[in-house]
Amino acid sequence: MDALSGVEIAGPSGSRYDEILTLEALDLVAVLHRELGQRRQDLLAARARRQQELSAGGTLDFLTSTEAIRSDATWRVAPPAPGLIDRRVEITGPTDRKMTINALNSGAKVWLADFEDASTPLWDNMITGQLNLKDALDRTIDFTSEEGKAYQLRPDDELATIVVRPRGWHLPEKHLLIDGERASGSLVDFALYFTHCARRQLEKGKGPYFYLAKMESHLEARLWNDAFVLAQDALGIPQGTIRATVLIETIPAAFEMDEILYELRDHSAGLNAGRWDYLFSIIKKFRSRGAEFLLPERNAITMTAPMMRAYTELLVKTCHARGAHAMGGMAAFIPNRRDPEVTERALAKVRDDKTRESGDGFDGSWVAHPDLVPICREIFDGVLGDKPNQLTRLRDDVHVSAAELLAVSETPGEITEAGLRSNISVGLQYLASWLHGTGAVAIFNLMEDAATAEISRSQIWQWLHNDVSLAGGPQVTTELVERLIGEELAAIREQLGDAYDAAGYEQATALFTEVALADDYVDFLTLPAYERMP
What we know:
Layout: E1 7-9, H1 23-55, H2 67-71, E2 89-94, H3 97-105, E3 110-114, H4 123-138, E4 142-144, E5 150-152, E6 161-165, E7 172-178, E8 181-184, H5 185-203, E9 209-212, H6 218-235, E10 243-248, H7 251-254, H8 257-263, E11 268-273, H9 275-285, H10 306-321, E12 326-330, H11 340-360, E13 364-367, H12 373-384, H13 402-405, H14 417-435, E14 441-443, E15 446-448, H15 450-465, H16 478-496, H17 505-517, H18 526-531
Parallel strand pairs: 2-3, 2-13, 3-6, 9-10, 10-11, 11-12, 12-13
Antiparallel strand pairs: 1-7, 4-5, 7-8, 14-15
Helix pairs in contact: 1-5, 1-6, 4-5, 6-8, 9-15, 11-12, 14-15, 14-16, 14-17, 15-17, 16-17
């Protein structure tokens, strides 16, 4: 059978889409889907079984079945690839045209070109994002703002290295069907970029590099590795050309760091401390387990909490023992060019965050705004000097137990009405933007993406279902949350004025209420949100 005979493009057509949805690219999507699609479904089913075990009182621990991998001190991942040797500053952001130029020009060493949490899976976003990456590599990209400001790329040797983050394994692509089934969003994003940009990157002396999101086990990493092998063979590109950094942003994955590096070892570029999704994962996995697994309100949680220290210290130790980069997380604070006081506070918090990470041995860290690149670079320059990384800092002093990773109740902080209101307002504002196609949103001087929206709605669900009372206030009930939703909507309406009616808050409120208050917890709010999107 012709490989493309079962491929159907169910999304609308647009300008230059044919440059991305080529026969070669669609053929690779079909091959990956047919070879790996059932395993992906099986692994998602394994996630559901593990969740049932945890909800029934089970726990997490380091795997006995893979102890030999952890105890073998001899294996290493592949050496750092060109363009990924020095990663002291990485900037993250969606792949719209303006961000593509600004991120590449930002002075960061790496740009995480995001098809995942900082984007939305609007079909046009997914395809034009691929076009923007292709155009950037061809140096044909430019952008002119409504105010007439022109944006163009700096010389190649001044540009950040592109590292693409595909969607997570759980997300489908409803606009591309293979044999009548929705393709995996992960494999679509990967295959389209790999087909069009792998050789372009190699011609520039770099390569096709990826960030892998939301994995929960080394078996999911094995699936990615097999996708890499298949794709490299299909395009005649040498094995080991692809490199991937895995975000350790789920609590189960924190117990399998060594194993994840091992599965990807010929293609590995290290691990990243994906702090916001990590908190979301803790809430989700232990959402019905009472006070032992209750976190304070989101804005009270810092990286100095015992469980977060255990997680980040273990990540640095694990990576450096295997010759892999350990990448720090994103500080959500963003500067406000119209408010110097807000900017000063944001810069102080970013400085503290990056100082802690560089001191712990991380090889670099993330920022979400070009204005934060200089401060992150300055701090890591102070530790690294002329060295490209801290791979030689092995952190043999670190010893982390399962109990330390699970010490959720030791996190200091309260649950207040202000915290509840913040979760509601952030959730509503973010979802209104998300449903309109924007996935990275500045709210209350923080850069919010899907992960922080997930924390906001998941905390409310957890507080409701564990009889939590606010500090000095009432118990969190459905009636209380519904009243506060109304009050926060009124505040948003007053702020937006005439723009409120067009902002989509009716649909956003219905979705937020569903994912925060329903008896049945929705694993990812982006799943029902995607079904509301054209």
